[in-house]
UniProtKB/TrEMBL annotation:
Pfam families hit by this protein: COesterase
Amino acid composition bias (Low complexity), ranges on this chain: 362-371
Entry superkingdom: Eukaryota
Name of the protein this chain belongs to: Carboxylesterase type B domain-containing protein
Domain Carboxylesterase type B: 35-278
Compositionally biased spans, kind Basic residues: 372-382
Ranges for region Disordered: 352-386, 531-550
Length: 662
């Protein structure tokens, strides 16, 4: 394999791949600079689709010259323009994209890498799995890796970022007994999950061929958001991951889980209803239907339990019924600490020194200043129990503000009772969220959204985190919460973390601000609400900052900048940069195999620029942990998620206005 030496930033990058017998011609990324040059290879085909509803095949044959200067086709999908609405950006500010859609040529990936990377570099590889349900693509401008890789080079920890395209909706996840028989006749093992298997094919391609781009195939981190994060949970619990892991760690951001992963028979029943409406009588009839017709149905379907893709016992990990019992049975790891490192017999430990500073923390109580010991590099007991970062945003349910506003107090009460099918349990749930037939109409939407938020995101995330920690012997799981506001909307809505992580969303004019003086202090009794809809949540910290100094508070005498008319916190340049740098540096450190923060702490991003480690007691103040135990746990995960799904769809008359989320 021959890689051309580093070139000036205005020279086209070229990779001569010895195994694939092709030369890839890429582009210099627009954000590339002489100090941190970045190259990008776009639309690289990693697999082919032999037929609709068939498993993809790894691509190993290329023409002698491969044009990787343009993004490849994406999976056919319903048209939507929700990004500017979600982030509060003007349509004029959103980058224009016109990505071609092709059912059989959509399996391609984009590689963004430091320009000076070469075969011997063996840089960490990060694979992004996008969310969006039956929509979206890895080529979307929101996920462009240029800014992220550029900053990794500037920080002295360069990484390679790969974004992938895969099949979605019916094309990616249709399943039925008839399709299973068709797959067997074609020599495929398993049915459905074509999109998940596409993702696995991309991992196989990266494992075999990323070395030529300077990546380390044995140091791969999966990360994703929404349904992409849910897909990562499926990969963590897959049979293939048990037998042959192709990634070493994972980051799960705001996972959107289904109420349950259906069996082939259950999925087939749903598909048969669709086939009747399309006058299709067999698999070949379904293959003959124009792709635009299938896409226009806008169905959001995901994984199927076909008895092959998921490992045995996967339900205990994805749908834990009583997480506290798992925690009670948790074996406590007993490892010696040697020179600031955990003495892990099976693998080496690596020292980590934090490289970004935290100027202040908001706290209601304070611990004495103390120095931090170096963070060790940690590894799981088993390769298929990869280290995991997992968390959620503070206002995920704002996605469903419109359908939630359609509920009446009596209608919401009736629906919740019907789903719970238990007078005592439904009464406890309604009382916990203060929903009753007499709830004022102007207060009901906020209470509905709180319940949706906990049922679909916050509580499932915590349950999965606890179960994952139990499976890993009490280690290898790092919990975070993202409460930083959107610069335009002033709330920590769903996917707001992506604004800071990828740093690609056009920003409004941010106010110029400086950090509070280091000597500033505030009474420990002062606290602030986390979001307007959750007054019981309070900020706080009992931790020192990452550089070991006691952290001053932020409050009276140094108030947050707010909109004079609405009182919404405005994100200024300092708080935006602080949170952006924090999430990028933590994710990159994790990709390098370092512990991103202390395992017995929760890392907070925001609000108002706050970042750092916090104790579990602070986490309980930020989320409704006690309420979950009293009202949600008795119902169980599947019932709770069904409540969240039904409420987010809105009452029957407004179902057509509902959102599927991402």
């Amino acid at each position: 394999m021959v890689t051309k030496p580093a070139s000036p930033v205005d020279v086209q990058p070229i990779i001569c791949h010895d195994l694939l017998h092709t030369t890839f011609f890429g582009v210099v990324h627009p954000l590339s600079t002489p100090e941190a040059p970045v190259h990008q290879f776009r639309g690289v085909r990693y697999a082919s689709v032999p037929a609709r509803f068939r498993q993809s095949k790894l691509c190993t044959s290329y023409f002698p010259a491969t044009d990787a200067t343009r993004f490849g086709p994406i999976c056919p999908q319903p048209s939507f323009g929700g990004v500017e609405e979600l982030f509060g950006s003007s349509i004029a500010a959103i980058p224009h994209e016109d990505l071609r859609q092709d059912e059989f040529d959509c399996l391609n990936l984009n590689i963004t890498r430091p320009a000076h990377a070469h075969r011997e570099s063996r840089l960490p590889v990060m694979i992004w799995i996008h969310g969006g349900g039956n929509r979206g693509s890895g080529s979307h401008w929101l996920y462009d890796g240029g800014s992220f890789v550029h900053r990794s080079v500037q920080n002295g920890k360069p990484v390679i970022l790969v974004t992938i395209n895969f099949r979605l909706g019916l094309l990616g996840f249709a399943s039925s007994p008839a399709l299973r028989d068709d797959s067997r006749n074609a020599g495929d093992d398993g049915v459905g999950n074509y999109g998940l298997r596409d993702q696995r094919r991309a991992m196989e391609w990266i494992n075999k061929f990323i070395y030529a781009f300077g990546g380390d195939p044995t140091n791969v981190t999966l990360f994703g958001e929404g349904t992409g994060a849910a897909d990562i949970l499926c990969h963590l619990n897959s049979s293939s991951n048990e037998s042959r892991p192709l990634f070493q760690r994972a980051i799960v951001q705001s996972a959107t889980l289904d109420c349950d992963i259906p069996s082939v028979s259950s999925a087939g029943w749903q598909l048969s209803k669709l086939m009747c409406s399309l006058h299709a009588h067999n698999v070949e009839d379904m293959r003959a239907i124009p792709v635009d017709t299938l896409v226009s149905l806008a169905l959001t379907i995901r994984a199927t339990d076909d008895g092959v893709f998921l490992r045995k016992g996967w339900k205990d990990s994805l749908y834990p019924e009583e997480p506290d019992e798992c925690e009670a049975r948790l074996p406590r790891a007993t490892h010696r600490v040697v020179n600031g490192h955990l003495d892990v017999p099976e693998l080496h430990a690596l020292q980590h020194s934090p490289h970004h500073h935290h100027r202040y923390l908001r706290s209601s109580s304070r611990s004495p200043s103390r120095s931090r010991s170096p963070r060790p590099r940690l590894h799981p007991h088993h390769e298929s129990h990869q280290p995991l970062i997992i968390g959620d945003c503070g206002g995920e349910s704002l996605l469903w503000s419109l359908p939630a506003s359609g509920w009446t107090p009596s209608g919401a009460v009736r629906r919740i009772r019907a789903i719970c099918q238990s007078l005592n349990k439904s009464t406890a749930l309604l009382r916990a969220y203060d929903i009753n037939p007499y709830t004022p109409a102007d207060e009901l939407p906020d209470r509905i959204l709180e319940l949706i938020n906990d049922a679909r995101f916050a509580w499932p995330t915590e349950c999965i985190a606890k179960t994952a920690r139990h499976e890993r012997g009490g280690r290898m799981v790092w919990r975070y919460i993202f409460d930083q506001e959107s610069p335009s909307r002033g709330t920590p809505h769903h996917a707001v973390d992506l604004m800071y992580l990828f740093d690609n969303v056009p920003l409004p004019n941010l106010a110029t601000s400086t950090a509070p003086p280091a000597s500033f202090e505030l009474s420990p009794e002062i606290s602030r609400p986390c979001t307007p809809s959750t007054p019981e949540m309070v900020y706080g910290s009992d931790s020192s900052s990452e550089d070991g100094r006691a952290s001053p508070d932020y409050g009276f005498g140094c108030p947050p900048v707010v909109d004079d008319e609405w009182g919404v916190p405005i994100v200024d340049e300092w708080s935006y940069s602080r949170v952006r740098d924090a999430i990028q540096s933590r994710w990159i450190a994790f990709a390098y195999g370092e512990s991103p923060w202390s395992e017995d702490k929760v890392y907070v991003f925001g609000p108002e620029g706050e970042t750092g480690e916090r104790s579990l007691s602070i986490f309980e103040g930020r989320r409704r942990v006690r309420l979950w135990k009293d009202a949600l746990e008795p119902l169980g995960m599947q019932v709770v998620q069904k409540v969240g799904m039904e409420l987010s769809n809105g009452p029957p008359l407004t179902t057509k206005l509902g959102y599927t989320g991402s």
